[in-house]
Each structure stands twice: as C-alpha cells, then as structure tokens.
Amino acid sequence: MPGRDYSQMAQQAAVLSGYSAAQQKLIAAIGKDFLVKLAEVERNYYAGLLTLERMRQIPERELEVLKTAKSDWLNTMFSGQVSATMVKNTYSVGEIYLKLDLPVEMMIGGTALLGQELMRKTFMLYTNDEKKCAQAVIAVNAMVAFSQIIMQAAYTASEAQALEKFLAVTGMSRALYDKLAQ
User: Fold this and answer.
1) In Å, what is the CA distance from 46 to each residue of 9, 59, 110, 111, 167?
2) pLDDT digit string (tens) for 149-161?
3) 146: which of 20, 64, 105, 138 is 20 to 30 A away, CA to CA?
4) Would you call 171 helix, strand, or coil by DSSP?
5) What is the pTM of this model?
C-alpha cells in the first residue's frame, strides 16, 4: 500500500511479538530446512482450513490468490531477515483476507493453524537436538506472532478508512463521533 511505513510497522510488530534479531538470524539459519517442507506444511494447513464451510465458499480462483500470497509470505519469512518486501508480503495476506470478506477471526485462526503446522514440522526436524528444537520453537512462534500482527494491521487500516468515509458522508466531526462512542 502506497504511503505505508513498513519499517515502523515491522519494528513495532517485532517488539510486540518478541521477534528479536537473534530469532530472525536463527530463522534464516534453519530456513533451508523449512523451505523444502513448506509445500507439505501448506497442504496440511489447507486440508484443515477447508473443513470450514466459509472457506469452501471461496471461489477457486480467489483461493488460489490467497494460497499464492501465503506461499510468498512463508518463503520470505524463512529468509529470516525482516525487510520491506517481507512485511509487504505479510501485509498483503491480510489485505487478501479482507478482499475475500473474511472476518479477522478467520485470519487469526488461520495463522494459528499454520503456526501449529510449523510447530509440528519444527519438532520433526529437530527431534534429536533438544536445544536447537527449543530455540527453533521460540523463533518460529515469534515469527508467526510477528506475521499475525502485520496481517491484522490491514484490518485496522481498513476500519480506519471506513470510519473516515462515514465521517465524511455524514458530516459528523471526529470529536462528536468520539463522544457518541463513549
């Protein structure tokens, strides 16, 4: 989205999720192990997600757009380096959920389901190295939380835009709206 400060968004999300520079470095280091497993993670994720009636109602073409965006997001996430491209890819997933008219709960729940798939894969990959497994679990969890915060920002921006449109159409001042909302 033009004018969006992805750097500030990333900094705030990193603090709120605990996605530290050390964890980003670890994700970059283990990323190669995950990249070859992402297709399987995504298959399992969509198998679960598509048990929901609302998800099955999405036209196949639109579902493919979501799948492609999620795949791009996962691939950039496992580079480990927080970048404008990665944050933009993550934000775009939230925008796609919005375009599909899915409630924020679907995005949050979907991200949680994907996190569970990533946790399963983490335990499978590092089952013989308890220390590495524990570190990877913490880093993957922080990465998923970071992503969820970025995706949810798309919903927040949409709500703010809707409020501004409402105020413009009704001619109501923000002060009056705030007072009525109390």
Assistant:
1) 28, 14, 9, 11, 39
2) 999 888 776 565 6
3) 64
4) coil
5) 0.81
End-to-end Cα, the chain, rounded Å? 31
Does the structure show a pLDDT above 90 at 140?
yes
Q: What is the C-alpha separation between 65 and 69, in angstroms, rounded?
A: 6
Element (H, E) at 142: helix 130-170
What is the arithmetic mean of pLDDT over 137-156? 91
| Residue count of the chain | 182
Structure tokens given for 179: 């007072």
Q: Which residues contact 19 (CB under 8 A, 6 or more apart)?
A: 13, 82, 139, 142, 143, 145, 146
Residue written as tokens 């996605």? 19
Q: What are the residues whose beta carbons fall under 8 Å from the beta carbon of 7, sequence distance 6 or more?
A: 84, 87
User: What CA–CA distances, in Å, run from 19 to 12, 26, 71, 77, 117?
Assistant: 10, 11, 20, 12, 19
CB 18 within 8 Å of CB 95? no
Cα(176)–Cα(174) distance, integer angstroms: 5
**CB under 8 Å to 128, separation ≥6 — which residues?**
none
CB 8 within 8 Å of CB 85? no
